[in-house]
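Sequence in, structure out.
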Amino acid sequence: MKSLLRIKIVLCLTFLFLGGLASAQESFVNFPLPQHPDTLRILSIGNSFSDDGTQYLPDLLESAGIRNVILGRLYIGGCSLERHCREYETGSTAYRYDKSTANAWRTVSAQATLLDGLQDEPWDVITMQENSGYSGIYDIMHTWLPRLIGIVRKEAVNPQATLVWHGTWAYAANSADERFSFYDRSQEKMYESILDCVSKLQDDFNIPVVIPCGTAIQLGRNTSLNNADEVPADNPVFDLTRDGYHLSRQFGRYLAACTWFEALIRPTLGIGVVGNSCRLRKTEYSLSAKDARLCQKIAFRACGNSR
């Protein structure tokens, strides 16, 4: 009888636990990406990594002949999920708000609030990310992401905006950033930790769409794009970064923008990044046709792996 009672208790606790997980999953309602909208509106809530990731996205859109995409970039350097929540609570004007309505970034305000950007447009897609140092520490993300999701759902003009995660990259192997110590100064450990966190948050917070910049950058580091011999002797940084963690302004940023394009533009507008003619020709970071195509193929591969 005692054994039977124990079994019943275990079963009851199991059902309660599973029911709790189901309720938690259901509480984070998300919506699919829009299909061929007349205007596609994408807002990133982030930090300097979202700045890196989207810097050349308007250039790629222009080269593809796409002129019906509005981009918003709302960020504070180094901002964490926790800080976004606290900035909202205080109504802080610490954000920089950039916008692209004609495939060119312009600064709307250097002293914006979270609401200034969030309520400026009926955004179809809203991306979020963690501070780079915490991007592989799930306990921190798990604490603050639901709060930020709650803010977005409460304040967004479009109640059916798709919430998307920007999966960021591991630091350069020689990074001097103090946060690299969280991962024993191992790029591989940091990268695997980020992937593990992304997988968990997809399940826990119903975020099926990820912009896999971390994967794209890691793949790019194993190609000719990552040529350390070209780094100036007085600036010994490599692994597609310019300082150990921010992306290099040529290949790093271009590869990340290709990944944003492939992750969001292909499934919404049906146009992929491979074959895009953008090579940043009018800038000092001009790419060869070979290198541009390599970046595009890496982005395609990274997004294929994340689906």
